[in-house]
Amino acid sequence: MSKIIKKFDEGFTLIKDEIENDIPLTCPVCEYFIRTDQDVFYYSQHKCCFECAVKWAEGSNRIKWKEGWRPDSSIIEEEKKIRRKLVTPIRFT
Ligand SMILES: [Zn+2]
Q1: Which region holds residue 89: left if phi is over 0, alpha if psi is between -120 and 50, else beta?
Q2: pLDDT per residue of the chain (93 residues) written in tens, 0 to 9
Q3: Which of 15, 63, 69, 73 is spaced 20 to 30 A from 29 at the CA atom?
Q4: Where are the domains of the chain?
Q5: For residue 5, how far is its CA from the centre of ligand 1 (angstroms)?
Q6: Rounded to two decimals, what is the model's pTM?
Q7: Region of residue 88 (phi > 0: left; psi between -120 and 50: alpha; otherwise: beta)
Q8: Ligand 1 centre from 92 Cα, in Å?
């Protein structure tokens, strides 16, 4: 089986078996991990993670999103800064 190898700016590398579906390792919009069933579901609906779907793909942007519109990279970066503050840091004990 082939492996997916992804290097992250945070300084770690993830190696994962390639699986037989089209769900990527990370959200193509915000590049955060697709890690929950909710993310997988929203990816199948909107081609992005749950957070991006709620923030951008649903509601008033719904039609634009389906047509391929995505937020500006500066807007995505702002959103990622906010999310980073909400994420509990991983602790190694
Ligand atoms: Zn996302």
Answers
A1: beta
A2: 577 788 888 888 888 766 556 789 999 999 999 989 999 999 999 999 999 999 999 989 999 999 999 999 999 999 999 988 876 666 777
A3: 15
A4: 22-86
A5: 20
A6: 0.69
A7: beta
A8: 26
